[in-house]
Amino acid sequence: MKDILIQYMKRFTDLSESQLKELTVDIPVTTYKKGTILLHQGEVPSKCYFVLKGCVRQYAVDEDGNEHTSNFFTEEQSVTIFNQHTTDKSSKYSLSCLEDCTLVVGDLATEQSSYDVHPVLEDMTRKMMQEDMGALRDEFSSFISSTPEERFHALIANRPDLINRVPQYQLASYLGIKPETLSRIKKRVASE
């Protein structure tokens, strides 16, 4: 499984495969069952993750008890809650395994000591975060300027695997629409 991580890391460094294998020897990989909550909304995150296999959902529950899905993380995606800018450092989101997941687990408390031992990790992490933040900014800009049908077409183009992996009501929430609207859009698209 760590081969997936090594292939991903190659995008952000010139290190050889043997050097990357050496770097990943002590990195913990954990399997979680479908339905496992990795982080509850309101908790202070202590871990970050990288998906080797499976699907993790990021969502928030509003004051009325409604869930709002803001992201899905699948293979070769990092799962991190960026909340260091907040006063209490608590997460505004929950993270839940939608499938059985195999994840690399990073301990935020020992992050700096890992960088001290392996300085190249800090540089790779920075590059990974820059890529993630750029993609997130692009997705957000596209989301707010598009219609629900355009969002669905973008989903088909960019993340088609989610359509069969994610419950429809969660997918509708992610697209910012009601499940009935998603059904109508899917029917229109299927008839095209």
Features:
44% helix, alpha+beta, globular, 8 strands, Jelly Rolls, 192 residues, four-stranded antiparallel β-sheet
Structure, explained:
The protein has 192 residues and is of the alpha+beta class. It has a domain at 2-111: Sandwich (Jelly Rolls). The chain is built from 8 helices and 8 strands; from the N terminus they run ααββββββββαααααα. The chain has helices at 2-9, 17-24, 111-117, 119-144, 148-158, 162-165, 168-175, 179-191, and strands at 29-32, 37-39, 47-53, 56-61, 67-73, 78-79, 94-97, 101-107. A hairpin with a 5-residue loop joins strand 4 and strand 5. Helix 1 crosses helix 2 (17-24) and helix 3 crosses helix 4. The chain is globular and about 55 Å long.
What portion of residues is helical?
Answer: 40-55%
Strand order in the sheet with the most strands: 1-8-3-6
Q: Which parts are unreliable, with pLDDT below 50 for 5 consecutive residues or more?
A: none
The biggest beta sheet is recorded as: 4 strands, antiparallel
